[in-house]
């Protein structure tokens, strides 16, 4: 217990057991008189915490309560989250984390994570050295420029890094001391934030151009020196920067972008699973995206690889994928097509969104716009007109930004849709059937990727690993879950899913000779032995 004693032990969030210290421990560690009489197990403490949390009248108040619990008793927080995943995850991450980020400076209690600002340039390695832990293996870093669908939230985006770290621990069992949330606070172009007297961030316009890139370079290089085993997860950067960093660092350091690659893998998994419902072959699908940002572009690129694995040539694969933006169908004559979307701009006459669905007859429609209500009744009904079982995946979050709700999708398709979303929705009763749509939550993917990387000490993350993760996630969906309309497993099984994904990542790393550590014969047993289980 870090050789802590008395009140210092009680106040240490990583070591405390609070009222669960036994009589013998109270005597041994100088705790007699500092605790009430009852020796309360973690189970009893969990009941008390749940009761107090549920008394709160809003999701943001519950978020504040849980954040305070993490500050004072780490193991109790994670035990609560693991045992009540479906209830707690939407409170510590999407959709509540969006509101928490908007209000971050106003609900701030205690500092969590590491902040790096332009004033630290030239000394970022030294700043990293102030972090109290030395064996850091997972880093989630953001610059807060594109937080969910909410835009530039500056230093308030730290809430995203903190939330993702909690998912690494709860969903995959990465030890908390091995995780570090980071905010690259390079300023904000959100004038309202800069004028807020309670704003805690660097109160200037965003660093841009070479000055910005050199600062990110310095950060990445400093991580390699201070924490050479660390995986870097880039989170909620603007689309150009997100792709820039993947190209800049992907072949040099162990890193990935969750908005691009994590979203791609979880979406691909949902499409794989949908084939079990529609009875269509994956290799025969035509897929349409609404939106041309990092999530949509990254998903299309992973799907090209998936089609390739299914036997299609590169051009064949690209021809199965179509894009629609705010102007309508993206076609080859468009002069302003983004470079990464250009391979998917095919020969076709320009047309609007509904017309594109009518002409191309996509089997799957994927929304990644960040704009609410873009899957209108006309759009959903047109998908239902060209498919017996239309597949619609509305990825945007938080819930207020989703392309359509679950209830709308089922009602407008007369209950025939195979629906998934990036935000959670309650079950939907349509006529005589109850649907329990799955949430395409990146928490199904990135924690297992991280666990697999740490389990085999892989020094790179590859597209093959994300393909393996998507396949594994899809295979973990039960027939009973599919019968309820879900294309993803219950969140209550996410640790089991993460373990399976970690195994597949280890095997992919070993196959590609990227594992620096020896991968044992019983990989599953090895992975399970590494997972943090918060008990007293």
Automatic annotation (TrEMBL):
Coiled coil: none
CC cofactor note: Divalent metal cations. Prefers magnesium or manganese.
Residues involved in (S)-malate binding: 146, 397, 441
Annotated signal sequence range: none
CDD domains: NAD_bind_1_malic_enz
Cofactor(s) the protein needs: Mn(2+); Mg(2+)
Domain Malic enzyme NAD-binding positions: 260-510
A GO MF label: NAD binding
Alphabetical keyword list: Metal-binding, Oxidoreductase
Family under the similarity heading: Belongs to the malic enzymes family.
Name listed for the protein in its UniProt record: Malate dehydrogenase (Oxaloacetate-decarboxylating)(NADP+)
Species annotation: Nitrosomonas marina
